[in-house]
Amino acid sequence: MAYLRSGFVSSEIVVGPDFKNFNSVLPCVLGIDEAGRGPVLGPMVYACAVSPVDKTDQLKELGVDDSKLLTETKRLEVFNSMGNRDDGKKIVSYAYKVLSARLISCAMLRRCKYSLNELSHESAIALIKEALDNNINVTEVCALVTVNVMAGFGQIISLEHCSGDEEHTLRFKERNLVSETHL
């Protein structure tokens, strides 16, 4: 059970079968995205995918792209091809967390309001920490979600406690924005 900064929001992070120690030696890129429209229409799902930085070309060959640009059939085909490669090596692993509509509503309606942006930030932070806690050598984070739009996304993450004593340097990218922060 992931415990987030607010002390209020708590939901389980589900990891893929090979997430722990996934390519622990190679530098990896971690991409974060969200799906859902908030408490009115159901849950929000926050997910991350990790892949070695040097496998970007292979991901493009498989057809990996923004899910909104792919048909449901193509998304399933791409997902299955990432795990069923000829060489038997997986080039992507994943983790996700689901915030129920009830949890979102309770956070937003409580006396001390807790916005969907804050929930989004904390979910992204929890996924990054989960990857680091599972010995994934994350060196770059690509956030496709609105969390990067809020000022100080990298600063918020750098203030969070991460396991271990070593310092991690992460590059945060969103379109043309690149900044570095140390964990």
What labels would you give this structure?
183 residues, alpha+beta, Nucleotidyltransferase, domain 5, seven-stranded mixed beta sheet, two-stranded antiparallel ribbon, 5 helices, 29% helix, globular, disordered N terminus
Mean pLDDT: 73
Shape: globular
Biggest sheet record:
7 strands, mixed
Extract low-pLDDT stretches. Answer: 1-7, 145-151, 158-167, 174-183
Strand content: 25-35%
Provide the CATH superfamily. Answer: Ribonuclease H-like superfamily/Ribonuclease H
CATH class: Alpha Beta
Going across the biggest sheet, name each strand in turn.
3-6-5-4-7-8-9
Based on the coordinates given, report the CATH architecture: 2-Layer Sandwich
Work out the radius of gyration.
16 Å
Q: How many DSSP-defined strands?
A: 9
Through-space gap between termini: 22 Å
Number of domains: 1
Under CATH, the topology is which? Nucleotidyltransferase, domain 5
GO biological process, one term: DNA replication, removal of RNA primer
Pfam families: RNase_HII
Catalytic activity: Endonucleolytic cleavage to 5'-phosphomonoester
EC number: 3.1.26.4
Short characterization:
GO terms for molecular function: metal ion binding; RNA binding; RNA-DNA hybrid ribonuclease activity. The protein has helices at 56-62, 72-83, 101-109, 116-133, 153-159, and strands at residues 2-3, 10-11, 13-15, 28-35, 44-52, 93-99, 138-143, 169-174, 177-182. By secondary structure, the protein is of the alpha+beta class.
